[in-house]
Amino acid sequence: MNVYSLASERLFGLPVTRITANNSWLKLDTYLAKPIAERDYNAGDNDLKLIMFHQLWLAFGDSYYVQLSRQTREEKPNLSNTAEKMRYFMLKTCRITQQDLTDFFQKWGFKVDESVYSEIANLNLPAPDEDLTVLRD
Fold first, then answer.
1. What pLDDT does 1 receive?
2. Cα separation, 127 vs 109, whole angstroms
3. Which of 14, 32, 102, 131 is the most buried (most CB within 10 A)?
4. What pLDDT does 3 receive?
5. 28 by DSSP, 3-state: which?
6. What pLDDT is stored for residue 95 in this prediction?
7. 41 vs 93: CA distance, rounded Å
8. Mean per-residue pLDDT over the chain, rounded
9. Distance between CA 97 and CA 32 in Å, rounded?
10. CATH number for the domain that contains residue 50
11. 77 near 45, Cβ under 8 Å?
């Protein structure tokens, strides 16, 4: 899974992303048809995981990834396990976008300690105006 490969596709002017070319949107439809309690982002395949990152790009553009990459390089967080990495990513994404993305992460099946969602709520950010999980190219 590589968000930079999607950026390269855009840079080279490819008419459709590999997500569309591989008909991977159907995987998302199947995944989102499951009850939220049965969704587990970390158990998904890489094509499915990449869609989530692409939806963030569709919602927030290149500047989101530029900021995320820059801030992570500057902060150099010491993250030793998946739970810590997910917490960092979720909070950093909400801070950068200035939106409460709890619904997005829950719909994507982010299985994290509830304290992460409390931390997001404590940021007092507005929810997005639209459901980001429905974004497509």
1. 46
2. 18
3. 102
4. 64
5. helix
6. 98
7. 16
8. 91
9. 23
10. 1.10.390.30
11. no
- Cα separation, 117 vs 100, whole angstroms: 9
Residue 136, both tokens: 């497509």
Predicted pLDDT at 44? 80
Please tell me the total count of domains within the chain: 1
Distance separating alpha carbons of residues 77 and 75, to the nearest angstrom = 5
The label of the residue with tokens 């008419």 reads 15
DSSP category for residue 125:
P
- Residue recorded with tokens 């590589």: 2
Say if residues 102 and 123 touch (Cβ distance below 8 Å). Answer: no
Tokens, residue 96:
């950068």
* Residue 89: predicted pLDDT: 98
DSSP state string for 26-83: HHHHHHHHS-GGG--GGGS-HHHHHHHHHHHHHHHHHHHHHHHHHHHHHH-----SHH
Quote the distance between the C-alpha of residue 80 and its chain's center. 20
Domain that holds residue 74: 3-134
**Residue 130: helix, strand or coil by DSSP?**
coil
* Cβ–Cβ < 8 Å for 106, 90: no
Q: Residue 104 corresponds to which tokens in the numbers above?
A: 């997005």
